[in-house]
Amino acid sequence: MPEAKRVSNYAMRNWLESTESILGANGLKSVLNHSNLKKYIDNFPPPDYEMQIPEEDFRGFFNSLMELFGEKGSRSLQLRMGRETVRIDIEKYNQRLVKAILLAARLVPETKKMRLILDRYKEEYERSYHDSIDIQENDDHFLVIQKACFMSEGVTSQVSVCGVLVGAIEYSIEWVTGHRHKVEEIECRAMGHPADVFRISKAVEE
Q1: Is the pTM of this model over 0.85?
Q2: Helix 163-177 to helix 95-105 angle, to the nearest 10 degrees?
Q3: DSSP string spanning 168-203?
Q4: Could you tell me which CATH number the domain at 6-204 has?
Q5: How far does Cα 122 stand from its chain's mean position?
Q6: What is the pLDDT of residue 1?
Q7: Any idea where the domains of the chain sit in the sequence?
Q8: Cα distances (Å, whole numbers) of residue 202 to 74, 143, 173
Q9: How far is 126 from 42, CA to CA, in rounded Å?
């Protein structure tokens, strides 16, 4: 029997902190109670990259968000959570790396800054979830392609479901460039596509 898939302590902690930041301590407790994950109440995992969190805990947490807030409400919440996870990562946990990225991005064009942060996103995601990401660059946009995202795994939906990742990419791009760029999930495994595909426009949003 294959070993159950796991994600990093840091990934789970970051999502818990982000949810608490948005919903408050009582809101987070409600989600954890609903998802039968009471073991995380006032007991966040350490901020390290040990792969100790069962993926079923991770997915159960997000499934509960969908159930509690409904498709429309959870979509808005997911976008906020994605942005908040990156903010917390930048401001609390990875300040040394952040300074290195900002230094490297100072004198390069906007699209190079975008590529720098997308490469960082790929590195962080693969480190936390042990899933590979492909980044493709085209004339007017980037594509981020993920074939094993936990959010769309085993899910069937009429709409895309990976709003957290849209929010995370949005915030990352805005942080490194100082401008907003349109980010959209153009393919989703929950809708029957073979991969989750995110399109990031190189054009600055007006």
Answers
A1: yes
A2: 60
A3: HHHHHHHHHHSS-EEEEEEE-GGGT-SSEEEEEEEE
A4: 3.90.1520.10
A5: 11
A6: 36
A7: 6-204
A8: 27, 11, 10
A9: 27
